[in-house]
Every structure is written in C-alpha cells, then in structure tokens.
Amino acid sequence: MLLHGFTGSSAAWPERLLDGVAAAGRPPVLVDLPGHGRHARESRASRLSLAAALAVIGRAADGPVELAGYSMGGRLALHFALAFPGRVERLVLESASPGLETDQERARRRASDEELATRIEREGIEPFVDYWEAQPLFESQSRLDRRARTRLRRVRLANDAASLAGALRALGTGSLPSLWDRLGEVTTPTLLLAGALDPKFVGIAERMVSRMPRARLVVVPDAGHAVHLERPDAWLAAVTEG
Q1: Which side of the chain, N or C, has fewer Cβ within a 10 Å radius?
Q2: pTM (two decimals)
Q3: pLDDT tens sequence across 135-159
C-alpha cells in the first residue's frame, strides 16, 4: 500500500514503479490521503484529522499489508503502524519523520504552517504550487525529465487550495504528536529510505534506525527528497528486496 506526500495523490506514483512492484509479486494498493486526490475539495475539519487519515488507510487495507509512505505519507504510515501493529507486516518509510520532539518546536511549526495555509487560501492553487516547487527541498527534482515534471505538476494542480490548507493544519508535523519516544515500540520490519542529496532527512533516518529494533536504512546516492521519482530503480531494488 502506497501513501503519497503533501500536495500529491495516488496519481503521483509513476507507472514504472507500480509495474515494478507488481512484477515483484506485490500488487500495489493506492490511497488518496485526506485533502488530496479524490478527497480534494473536502475541507471539513472532521475529514482532515489524524483519526480520519488512519481510517482512510484502514479501509483500504484488506488484511495485514506492507505499508509504504513518502514524506507526509510516511509520517502517517508510522502513526498507523503504532496504532494498529497487527495490521502492518512491513513498513517502508521514505524521507519520513516521527515529528518534532519538543512543544516549542511544534508550536513554531504550527505557526509557520498556519502562515503557509493562509497563503494557499489567499493565492490559490497555482501560485502555491509555483512556490512549493521552488523549495530547496525539491531542488533535485529539477533534473527529472520534462514529462515527469509535467506529470508531477499536473497532480499537484489537481488538488484544492482549501483542502491542502486544511490538511497542512491538521496533518503537519507541528500538529501531530511526536513519535520519537515510541520508535522502540515499532517491532514491524522497517525499511528507512533517504536520498543522499537530502542531508536533513538522512540525519533523521540515521537517528530513527538507531531506535527501531527491526529497522534498516538505505541511503540512495544521487537522489533528493523524492527517491521514488528521482531514482525509481534504486527505490524498487530496496523495497522489493525485503
């Protein structure tokens, strides 16, 4: 089961990657997280909460699953695995974080996310996507070929400004509780993936793997935050190896 990142949707996963997962005997299940994809234009707070996100994942899971999440999707996958450990056979966390450790950090992040959410609502989806794609975190994605960049932008633009703003407020790292102190409870076999060109998340993954009893870390050379887009063959090799 594949969980996309913020501004994405189930359509963000490349066909090449989906075909590779299926060929390895793992038919992919794609999920649209709250505020994204088929849940776009849904801005009610009750539908844009951690509980709602876990319910969406749970409804899509027909029995125990291998759960893979990218960025925001990885954060939610980790929450799901801790809430329902018997329903997850294996975790794949790509460029994901357990959250922010202190109340002060979370408060600062909530304030920052609120400013960004207000900006999304004020300016609309296209200006926000322009801003989002220019973030240093995504600089390495500029090396994607034009077709891949166009496809990714189309996925982002298909979302809704109010829904993205609501998802940011409800599911951002400032709003969700920290899971750093609970990583030792994750006994599910876990693969942590990070791109070598994304040193922040390499550092986070290194800290995570030291606290998780059944985790291993793969740092993918010449990839940034979105390993599955920038180095799909390396992503597939790591994910289908286990």
Answers
A1: C
A2: 0.95
A3: 999 999 999 999 999 999 999 999 9
CATH classification (class only), 2-241: alpha beta
Encoded tokens for 65: 């699953």
Q: Is 228 exposed, middle or buried (0-12, 13-18, 19+ CB in 10 A)?
A: buried
- DSSP readout, the chain? -EE--TT--GGGS-HHHHHHHHHTT----EEPPTTSGGGTT---GGGSSHHHHHHHHHHH-SSSEEEEEETHHHHHHHHHHHH-GGGEEEEEEES-----SSHHHHHHHHHHHHHHHHHHHHH-HHHHHHHHHTSGGGGGGGGS-HHHHHHHHHHHHTS-HHHHHHHHHHHSTTTSPP-GGGGGG--S-EEEEEETT-HHHHHHHHHHHTT-TTEEEEEETT--S-HHHH-HHHHHHHHHH-
